[in-house]
Amino acid sequence: MSVSLKAKIAEVFEEPGCDINQGKSEKERKKGCTKQLSPGAAAGGCAFDGAKIALQPVADVAHLVHGPIACEGNSWDNRHSASSHSQIYRTGFTTDINELDVIYGGEKRLFKSIREIIEKYDPPAVFVYQTCVTALTGDDIEAVCKRAAEKFGKPVIPVNAPGFAGPKNLGNKLGAEAILDHVIGTREPAFTTPYDINIIGEYNLVGELWQVKPLLDALGIRILSCISGDGKYNEIASAHRARVNMMVCSKSMINIATKMQQRYGIPYFEGSFYGISDMSETLRQIAKLLVQQGADAELLDRTERLIEVEEARAYKRIAEYKARLAGKRVLLITGGVKSWSVVAALQEGGMEIVGTSVKKSTKEDKEKLKEIMGEGADAHMIDDMTPREMYAMLKDARADIMLSGGRSQFVALKARMPWLDINQERYYAYAGYEGMVELVHQIDRTLANPVWQRVRIAAPWGDDGETLGAVAPTASTAHLASVAAKAMGLEPEEVPV
Amino acid sequence: MAHVVESKKACTVNPLKMSQPLGASMAFLGLDACMPVMHGSQGCTSFGLVLLVRHFKEAIPLQTTAMNEVTTILGGYENIEAALLNIRKRAAPKLIAICSTGLTETKGDDVNGFLALARQKHPELADTEIIYVSTPDYVGAFEDGFKHAITGVVKSLVKPLPLVQDQVTLLPGSHLSPGDIDELREIIEAFGLKAIVLPDLSGSLDGHIPPDWRGTTLGGTSLDDIRAAGASSWTIGVGEQTREGAEALQAISGAPFQIFERLTGIEANDRFLMRLSQHSGRPVPAKYRRQRSQLLDAMLDGHFYTGGMTVAIGAEPDLLLAIGALLHEMGAELRCCISTTQSASHALLPAETVLLGDLEDLEQGAKDCDLIVTHAHGRQAAQRLNKPLLRMGFPVFDRVGNAHRVQVGYRGTMALIFEIANLMIEQIPHHHADDWPLTPEARRAALARTAAPQSMPPSPLAEASA
Fold first, then answer.
1. What is the pLDDT of residues A315-357, one digit of tens each?
2. How crowded is the C-beta side of A488, counted as CA atoms within 13 Å?
3. Which residues 92-131 of chain B have a CB within 8 Å of chain A?
4. A133:B10 CB<8 A
5. Rounded Cα–Cα distance for residues B295 and B414 (Å)
6. With contact defined as beta carbons under 8 Å apart, do B339 and B314 qualify?
7. Reduced to 3 states, what is the DSSP secondary structure of residue A371?
8. For residues A109 and B153, what is the distance between their CA atoms, to the nearest angstrom?
């Protein structure tokens, strides 16, 4: 591992914004916050995956992966992060190194690749991702990027997060570090307003940012930059001029928020767009902080009035489903989306949470969960559930529906139980007031489908295909033949006398 | 016929190719009660897993040795050992199938040595078969990984057995779906032969509801069947990629083999049925004589829409040949052929050149074509060019039913012809009144008024009689 990468990893393990991290001893902190992976029993992506997830939504940038074909060839074009402008982020660029590059080094190929991209596509910047093999053979991507940036007069940003550095979560942070080190603060915005904010850790999956943006627009709050959903390179480069930072997903890019506070004095808060009360709380926080930072205090009133209108409308729309959904038991297995914010939303719809995963939740998240779920919350918090246990739970009908990421969907479907996708591969947007109504609508649509009764019908025969009366006794069917014959006029009809 | 050109670009844009370990893992997924493992960083497995899930819409058992930087440099023995013990404990597979990745190949792990050592240290592993194949990411492509996996399974598990005359081994290429395998098995069985299929994705990834939850593959070629392949009287391979496996089988059991370079298209299937008939000593069943006749009719019905069309195809070698040759037979011109890796199949392709390239090359070449044929990643190019896309190969993540798409045999060929022809019917333009404007020259000529007609042009009739 290069010295710089080692130092970087040590740096992200020192997180002032994280209470758990600060509660650790110096020695413990150096180990980082993720458990050692266990071979043969591991799931989830690598650090490269994490860095790519965090940065790929920057839509006008060319994302170039330096490594063998697996890293990009097996993974590109697999997320639904949406863009309102450039589409170049959806183009897969890779150096696809071969055996000779492994032996002689791939730096020349990398440099040529950057040149080809700039000549053909002319993006405002190129992000170059390091991978395991090229890190192991010692390709110095930082040097190549520096040289290329000088030569082509364009930012070429090294993202040093090879897969073997650690899990996905570490990669999110290393990706964020690249943005901090090389992008933020390098441009000035055309103008600034007292209502400028950055949204950090929002990836605009299936366009969710656009469920929230109209609310901010209506209040006159400008998203100076979103890191990284629907992102533009120049906007992110000028993010240091915002008045307030909102941190969306607590574990993924907290280092951007804390370091921007240190470097530029921008206050941040942690909020969520998932759930009605969470959305309202987020709007309040944004308004409060902006006013603290010098915006006109009347923003607070306008925000409250907007919240009032939006909440009333959303609750009214959800209430229409309440009668059908009340008492339905939900098993919630989630990673990226915070458990507690979804739990609150489901309870608004009258549903009961019979279990929720807390594997990726922080201590704070767990406290919040307890607060929301009340007595007996502990019993419903699941640290690590094997697919077999999930299957058993659904099969025994201890839950009516499972909400989870795509990878565990078959656990539910094979148990012939309703399932709804709430992770990054989903097709529906669940943010803001609109999104919560949509989520409840989707749960209702799933549960109300008559297909569940149909797929649970047992075959009328046994496993051997014979028992349970599938094979009819070979009793006389002669009378049928005579009925048919009469019908066809081959035999005279019996006329009752 | 086609000669192969390698791309000169340094940067691959919109990859067509996927990696060897992913191909090997797909092959392993066709073995019963198996747990495939990638020896590499956990991302290698995670990416492959997501892609397989999105294509098959099935749970995919696929594990990782979760290598990190330190274990890579010190060597992966401990991770392999821990993975074997963990997998045996948690999923209890009958077979653990390991393939290497770019990371561990760059380091140069001696996995066969590791496995011998692990077996020595842990006698409890004796109840689990373990196989290993070398599949570095930076060499070859998906199809090569699949090929090496099959050869690896044959070499490690098949032993010579007394001949069973009516048993044959079928080696399907990676481009065949579970539905294709079912179709071929049905054909072979119609000749009174029993087929051992290796690997048998139709048992594991055909999308069925198992009675209980299993952490391993839900079906496929059982260990007993793999071993029993040593008794087969004949090996049938579909696609050049199966040649290596068929040769390995022959070296072990002496079974002769025949590689059908494709089983899409009428003539290839004629040969297939003919050989099955000769091998079994039975006539071609009426059912297939009828299907052949149906296919002939489908070709006649379809040719109106495929004749003269121009096509750009991006596919792995054997699939490229299967689809490309069929399109050629239906009157299409293969104007742009992109593939991923070297193969003897390319020599048979009725096109001028095959470029080992990416989807950027395909998009360039497709500009003046009527149809694009490639996997689901081609959707972006098709949208930009506003051209119809025929989704073929792996992955097809934006359609359901991939496991049951059949394109081999008479019936599968017929279905494919209908699919292509229907796509082209949708493209038939609706004409407008001003679609055929005259040239300015013609319009001027029509308007010109000359003082007096000099003379009538001589009539051809008069000339002939003169």
1. 889 888 888 999 999 888 875 455 666 777 788 788 888 888 7
2. 6
3. 101-103, 106-107
4. no
5. 5
6. yes
7. helix
8. 36
Shared-domain flag, residues B47 and B117: yes
Which of A 395-414 lie inside 8 A of B, CB atoms?
Answer: 406-407, 410-411, 414
The separation between the first and the last C-alpha atoms of chain A, rounded to the nearest angstrom, is 104
B7, B8, B9, B12: which to substitute to probe chain A, counting the most A Cβ within 10 Å?
A: B12
Residue range of the domain that includes A215:
196-313
Residues of B in contact with A95 (CB under 8 A): 10-12
The answer to whether B52 touches B28, Cβ cutoff 8 Å, is no
Q: What is the CATH number of the domain that holds A134?
A: 3.40.50.1980
Q: How many domains does chain B have?
A: 2
List the domain range (segments joined by +) for residue B96: 18-139
Cβ neighbours of A145 (radius 10 Å)? 25
Please compute the mean of the pLDDT values over residues B36-42 and round it to a whole number: 97
Mutation for B interface: A3, A76, A164, A389, most B CBs within 10 A: A164
Collapsing DSSP to helix, strand or coil, B59 comes out as coil
| pLDDT 10s digits, A20-62 | 666 667 666 666 655 667 899 877 899 999 999 999 999 999 9
Cβ contact A53:A249 at 8 Å:
no
Mean pLDDT of all residues in chain B?
Answer: 95
> Hunting for tokens 């009605």 — which residue is that?
A276
Distances from the Cα of A259 to the Cαs of A127, B142, B232, in angstroms?
A: 21, 43, 68
For residue A305, what are its two tokens? 């009035």
- Contact across the interface for A74 and B85, Cβ inside 8 Å: no
| Per-residue model confidence (pLDDT) at position B456 | 56
The nearest alpha carbon in chain B to A52 belongs to B43
Cβ-nearest to A116 among B9, B43, B65: B9
Give the tens place of pLDDT for each residue, A260-301: 999 999 999 998 898 888 899 999 999 999 999 999 999 999
Q: Which residues does residue B365 pair with via DSSP β-bridges, in sequence order?
A: none
Domain membership of residue A459 (yes or no) is: no
Using pLDDT thresholds of 50, 70 and 90, give the confidence band for residue A307: very high
C-beta separation of B37 from B64 below 8 A: yes
Nearest chain A residue to B21 by CA: give it: A70
3-state secondary structure A248-291: CCCCCCHHHHHHHHHHHCCCEEECCCCCHHHHHHHHHHHHHHHH
Predicted pLDDT of residue B466: 43
Contact A45 B47 (CB under 8 A): yes
- B145 within domain boundaries: no
Domain match, A308 and A212 both: yes
Model-level pTM? Answer: 0.90
In whole angstroms, what is the distance from residue B34 CA to residue B205 CA?
Answer: 13
**A133:B138 CB<8 A:** yes
* Whether A458 contacts A450, CB under 8 Å: no
CB A188 within 8 A of CB A42: no
Comparing alpha-carbon positions, the chain A residue that sits nearest to B85 is A40
d(CA A344, CA B69): 41
Whole-number percent of chain B with pLDDT over 70: 97
Last residue of a domain, which of A313, A342, A377?
A: A313
Residue B86 with chain A: CB contacts under 8 Å? 38-41
Question: Quick count: other Cβ atoms within 10 Å of Cβ A475?
Answer: 6
Domain stops at, among B92, B110, B139 = B139
The count of structural domains within chain A is 3
d(CA B233, CA B169): 8
Q: What is the mean pLDDT of residues B23-30?
A: 98
